[in-house]
Design goal:
Blueprint: E1 5-8, E2 17-21, E3 24-29, E4 39-42, E5 48-50, E6 52-54, H1 70-79, E7 82-90, H2 99-109, E8 116-122, H3 128-142, E9 146-150, H4 160-173, E10 176-180, H5 184-196, H6 204-208, H7 211-228, E11 232-234, H8 240-251, E12 256-260, H9 263-266, H10 295-306, E13 312-313, E14 332-333, E15 336-337, H11 352-361, H12 367-381, E16 398-401, E17 410-411, E18 430-431, E19 435-440, E20 443-447, E21 452-453
Parallel strand pairs: 1-4, 6-7, 7-8, 8-9, 9-10, 10-11, 11-12, 12-13
Antiparallel strand pairs: 1-2, 2-3, 5-16, 14-15, 16-19, 17-18, 19-20, 20-21
């Protein structure tokens, strides 16, 4: 057999060289013979992991005008070892149909993505027409097989009855429902009282969204899912108590999945405080759920990865520039800070894998944990059948890391990154490894020691996804009532 590419991995695992042809992994074995046209990459004993799957990114959404575009966001993904992202088609309350939204958002992505991509739906007005006609059509014809919904944010939050209706429709179609779980009324009351006390600096964003708000909503979401016997994913889990609810549900064999993010592994609420030079600096770290106060919480997130509580590890890349009108400083009104007005979200699509790999190097998780939450499990959960694994027949998406102690350790600065955002919350962190090569369907698109970014916009292909490949409904119910099917 002739190969387009051979990745020599035998220094790490004897007999595990990878043969690639026509964008697919076709062989893993010993003594693969190159032809005159075969490219060869010697991993030199460095880890070879599947190309990263970032299943939670926000790119060029109408409500994020100062964020990354499809071009800049996916360029950044490739340079951080991620070869597939899933972004969001977002419905506003006034939108009575999803079909034109999908068409318009797909046009934004088409021809502009550096990496492969899929789409989720965000539902805020789930009419029966949408649930019974449009969702099935979008799943079948477009491969959009996941829905995200919110239990907070006034313009987006849904009542429990709406959530139940969505879970009923999702269960019938085999879709995955993603839930942002925070108790809106708790948060709204706390914000009102903080504003009455003139406590409006960015730091109070964390005070306004306590762990108990995430805990209550997480437990409630699990209860709603159990009533409907429907699988759900709790997104961007930030606290030990919320993770414990997920763990308890999993122990009872419920199809409840969890996701956490880099910011909840590495950053604390003190990041929201200002500096002497810039009292509004903390706005750069405003996200929801917020960064937590104690290192015990970040330790709990690492444990949740190591013990299998978390199925996916996503960036939740939802960036807004800091030094431009309409960005993070939208919360600075006539010189006075109002944390309520600060756009939520952090940049992180490029730093996601390196930050998780730091946990491998520090012994917090194993390389197997890394691959599971950053590559293979998100591919399975979201029906990306050809992604997430180094197996013959799969897409040849690979991330090759430096051998141990062979990369010069460096201090991260935003100027090193490839997004279109004017800061990174991880400024000043030390890194001892970084993706050396990123390979997308058999083509080198990132070569850190050579030409750097070698891919281009338009390399990415849209993926029509299947339903989840992980366990779903069990046909076990809370009593004799059954949801209509």
């Amino acid at each position: 057999m002739e190969y387009d590419l051979i990745v020599n991995a035998s220094d790490a695992i004897e007999g595990q060289d990878i043969g690639v042809k026509d964008g697919k992994i076709v062989c893993i074995g010993t003594g693969l013979q190159p032809s005159a046209s075969t490219s060869i990459i010697d991993a030199q004993g460095g880890y070879i992991t599947p190309g990263g799957v970032d299943s939670h990114v926000h790119l060029e959404q109408p409500n994020c005008p100062m964020g990354d575009t499809w071009e800049s966001g996916t360029r950044s993904a490739i340079c951080g070892g991620t070869t597939t992202v899933i972004a969001f088609v977002s419905q506003a309350r006034e939108h009575v149909s999803l079909l034109p939204l999908v068409e318009e958002y797909s046009a934004r992505a088409h021809g502009n993505s550096h990496c492969d991509y899929g789409l989720h739906l965000i539902l805020t007005a789930p009419s029966m027409k949408i649930l019974t006609n449009e969702i099935p059509e979008l799943a079948k014809e477009h491969g959009i097989t996941s829905i995200k919904l919110y239990m907070t944010y006034e313009p987006m939050m849904l009542r429990d009855r709406d959530i139940l209706n969505i879970l009923m429709a999702s269960r019938k179609l085999g879709l995955t429902t993603m839930i942002h779980a925070e108790n809106h009324d708790m948060i709204d009351l706390i914000i009102e009282t903080l504003e009455m006390e003139d406590k409006t600096e960015p730091y109070y964003h964390a005070v306004s969204r306590p762990k108990i708000a995430e805990s209550e909503a997480t437990y409630r979401a699990i209860c709603l899912a159990e009533v409907m016997d429907a699988p759900i994913l709790l997104v961007h889990v930030s606290s030990e108590v919320a993770a414990q609810h997920i763990r308890n549900a999993q122990t009872r064999l419920l199809p409840i999945y969890g996701e956490t993010c880099p910011q909840y592994l590495w950053l604390l609420a003190e990041k929201l405080k200002g500096t002497h030079e810039d009292h509004f600096h903390g706005a750069k770290a405003v996200c929801s759920p917020p960064l937590r106060e104690s290192p015990a919480e970040t330790d709990a997130m690492w444990r949740g990865i190591a013990n299998g509580t978390f199925t996916t590890f996503s960036s939740d890349h939802a960036a807004s520039k800091y030094h431009v009108d309409g960005g993070k400083k939208r919360g600075l009104i006539e010189g006075k800070p109002f944390f309520r007005e600060i756009p939520n979200g952090l940049p992180g699509v490029e730093t996601r894998l390196p930050l998780l790999f730091k946990g491998v190097l520090e012994g917090r998780i194993t390389i197997h944990d890394f691959v599971r939450v950053a590559c293979s499990s998100p591919a399975k959960l979201y029906g990306l059948r050809n992604k997430g694994s180094i197996v013959p027949g799969k897409d040849a998406d690979l991330c090759i890391w430096y051998p141990a102690d062979q990369m010069h350790q460096f201090t991260l600065s935003n100027s090193m990154l490839h997004h279109d955002i004017d800061y990174t919350p991880y400024e000043g962190m030390e890194f001892a490894n970084w993706p050396r090569y990123t390979i997308l369907r058999g083509r080198v698109v990132w070569d850190r020691d050579g030409l750097g970014l070698t891919g281009k916009k338009g390399d990415g292909q849209y993926i029509k996804r299947e339903g989840s490949l992980l366990p779903g409904p069990r046909n076990v119910f809370v009593n004799e009532w059954r949801p209509p099917i």
